[in-house]
Design a protein that fits this description.
By secondary structure, the chain is α+β, with helices and mostly antiparallel strands. The strands form two sheets. It has a six-stranded mixed β-sheet. The longest helix has 16 residues.
């Protein structure tokens, strides 16, 4: 892992560590991709990531536990069975957070790399290495003083959005959003675009799942972002379609002043 970290930090050739990769190595993120050192290096570079730190299995499991990642299922046990990488990144949507990349080995070679957004504070960095935050490509606009909110106020607004969601009141939900707000997968495709698109999409979802609810199990504010760990239950569908099993999701609420401009989901 030290050699992989060195390659990603630009201190070693990517080709020098390709020998440690399984021919079928995959990156298990919001989608599944072939994994190579070169592709991950470019991925981190494009997202203004800081120094990559190699960490052992104990710290992988510690971070996974702090982010409330279940370790009861076979995939979760696989995802936390090996060492990993710890890195601070800024996404294209300006979300800044620590990220965990945990590695699963088969016969001494990397076969799977799992991604986790860490919503809990990181454990102390290894001696001799500190993670650095790189500057954003563009300066953030300075908000009007009247719209500056405290962390508690942002959490309260996002909480009221969930209350509206559970009341199946799409109008009340989008009232907390900017006109051009959207809902999307984390660093992925937009699923509901604009305030009106979000209203229409939610109304359709509420009609299909009249018992749909989201329970907030953990909440945290980081800068202009609020992160909720939510437990969602759909209940029976009105159209008779197959029952959706309850699931956990991390929702990231991006704020512009006192309004939410984007909601991203990590599942």
């Amino acid at each position: 892992m030290e050699r992989i970290a060195a390659a990603l930090n630009g201190k070693a050739s990517p080709k020098s560590v390709e020998v440690f990769l399984h021919p079928d190595a995959k990156f298990m993120g919001t989608a599944v991709y072939p994994f190579t050192i070169a592709s991950m290096s470019e991925f981190l570079k494009l997202r203004s990531c800081g120094a990559v730190e190699a960490i052992d299995n104990q710290r992988v499991r510690s971070i996974a536990a702090m982010t409330s990642k279940s370790m009861d299922s076979e995939p979760a046990r696989e995802a936390t069975s090996g060492p990993g990488l710890w890195v601070y990144c800024v996404s294209s949507q300006r979300l800044a957070a620590h990220e965990l990349y945990s590695f699963y080995f088969e016969n001494g070679k990397v076969k799977r790399v799992y991604f986790t957004l860490a919503v809990a504070p990181p454990p102390p960095a290894s001696e001799g290495l500190s993670l650095r935050r790189l500057p954003l490509q563009k300066e953030s606009p300075v908000p009007d003083a009247a719209t500056l909110l405290s962390a508690d106020e942002r959490i309260a607004i996002a909480t009221r959005m969930i209350e509206a969601y559970n009341a199946q009141d799409a109008d009340a939900y989008v009232a907390f959003m900017t006109d051009d707000a959207c809902e999307a997968g984390y660093r992925g495709a937009v699923v509901r675009e604009g305030k009106e698109g979000t209203r229409t999409g939610l109304a359709a979802a509420f009609a299909k799942w009249p018992q749909n609810r989201a329970e907030i199990r953990d909440r945290q504010a980081i800068g202009n972002y609020v992160l909720f760990r939510e437990y969602v239950t759909r209940g029976p569908a009105s159209d008779g379609s197959e029952l959706v099993e309850p699931f956990e999701v991390i929702a990231v609420y991006s704020f512009e002043g006192d309004k939410v401009s984007r909601v991203e989901f990590i599942r």
